[in-house]
Amino acid sequence: MFAVHDFLKSAQTGAVAVAAALLLVTSAKAQSDPLPSWNDTAPKAAIVSFVEKVTKEGSPDFVPEPERIAVFDNDGTLWVEHPMYTQLAFALDRVKAEAAAHPEWKDKQPFKAVLEGDMKALAAAGEKGLVELIMETHADMTHDEFQKVVSEWIATARDPKFNKPYTELVYQPMLELLAYLRANGFKTFIVSGGGIEFVRPWAEQVYGVPPEQVVGSSIKTQFQMRDGTPTLFRLPQVNFIDDKAGKPVGINAHIGRRPIAAFGNSDGDLEMLQWTTMTGGSVRFGMLIHHTDADREYAYDRKSEFGRLDKALDAAAINNWTVVDMKADWKEIFLEK
Amino acid sequence: MFAVHDFLKSAQTGAVAVAAALLLVTSAKAQSDPLPSWNDTAPKAAIVSFVEKVTKEGSPDFVPEPERIAVFDNDGTLWVEHPMYTQLAFALDRVKAEAAAHPEWKDKQPFKAVLEGDMKALAAAGEKGLVELIMETHADMTHDEFQKVVSEWIATARDPKFNKPYTELVYQPMLELLAYLRANGFKTFIVSGGGIEFVRPWAEQVYGVPPEQVVGSSIKTQFQMRDGTPTLFRLPQVNFIDDKAGKPVGINAHIGRRPIAAFGNSDGDLEMLQWTTMTGGSVRFGMLIHHTDADREYAYDRKSEFGRLDKALDAAAINNWTVVDMKADWKEIFLEK
């Protein structure tokens, strides 16, 4: 959060000198310990050991810089995913914002449920209802219009439990990890089950990940000349679901190389970690974030109705993936401002 | 060709010192003239003027480095596309190589036409026949297997007219342009109508463009565990056609920012150049390579049955795109070895 986010914000408002000073402080600190929000437990040691192996020239485990690809799930891995995916909170807010233009929604599910705050009825609408919500709120506009709507929403919306902007509910240890990997020649990608165009408008500022390094689910777009202006128009049709077995497909489509490190937190990340680590060849790194901290964040795993970590937890034991116990392994979860 | 290709080849065989020396010579030369294979005509001046504008800090046309995205068509823009797309030559060779395992092809079009070298019958099979050929030769194998087949073929196949490997039929002026843009903070992407997985295995060595910066057409892939090993399996179904109106869609899907410079050579690149340049805002650059040199390469445009440059040539005049006359504007076309 601190370094990238604040630096960019400051630079934008002209306070470059202050931000540069902050950055110097941050990097001085980073030299002594690149992962200060991690406790000195096994996961931190495993990360550092992996990075030292693949970056040591002449070592049998050395990996040339262009092949140092690391992939990160977003929801629950880089930021909070409870009590609902942030993108769903966005969709619900959009329904409310657009309700006046859609009087028919008062009597039509799942919109009625959203407008009445009836989460039980919304849940009953199931995946079909969810897709309807997404299509109504994410399509039938140009790409530029959608980017604007997302940017405005993310700048103002707040998480109800923590009463903070969602972009401040990113995990400080993971921001340090992203920066540490990049400082060691890695290219860091986000591989989200969420919408690629929902993540891109703010990923560079918040995570230091540029739009071309974001992979995600998508709806179809179409090139159209409108009043002599070329536009990309968002169609209400699913194009690609970047979740579960879709993640390796999305990774290959966008990156074209197999990653050497993958970070996730749920069964939706299982195939991504398998694809990354089960190669029988060179050294690889797989990590799962286990949400164990009901006090500072949330605690959930196998029996959760949401963001379930079950099969992937079993696979971690078999495949030697590192499991982070948030409560025990993270000194800080969020950066206090 | 020279710098990147030879450097990588040499480095791989251990002759690092020689390659490094070559690189020093190349960069010394580049300092005096970054585009030595371009004649001092209008297109070269237009390129240099554009790059100087967008890289000059404080200038109203300045573009921050992360936004310096340049997109290049491949066939006919970076390498020779006549008398047929190289990928088609690959498909025909694959049919011949696999014919023994497919005795039924002897009597089945379009395979019969390929095996008999009957190009007229092949043309008569049309687009449907072409898709059949592609599916038979590009699918029903794992991603890794296909990469291996492409790599082996590109290392040995030769263009019949020039009697050279296809990877030596890349345009030296365009290699210089790619390097010049990168030296000025641009990220260079290939946006090909051809198959993304046909270009990726050699694009880094030949063009200096890594796999994650290649956009192209694709077939569907599926994640499968095979004998306990995760694989991506190539299915005989079209996923995406990255041509014409598909190019802006592919660009947005992969890059997520609008390019500021686009380079093409045919009507297949029209929408890509429109999407890049027609924004009404900041300074942009569009360029078309016009094949005018029947002696050194080929001459074709509006009436060509293949790789037609017609509507895009009209649009160039309206939109102020730079048109390269290969015969007049390029001092060298290929690097003589």
UniProtKB/TrEMBL annotation, chains A, B:
It comes from the Bacteria. It holds the Pfam family HAD. Coiled coil: none annotated. Residues 1-30 form the signal peptide. Keywords: Hydrolase, Magnesium, Metal-binding, Plasmid, Signal. GO terms for molecular function: hydrolase activity; metal ion binding. InterPro entries: HAD-like_SerB, HAD-like_sf, HAD_sf. This is Nonspecific acid phosphatase.
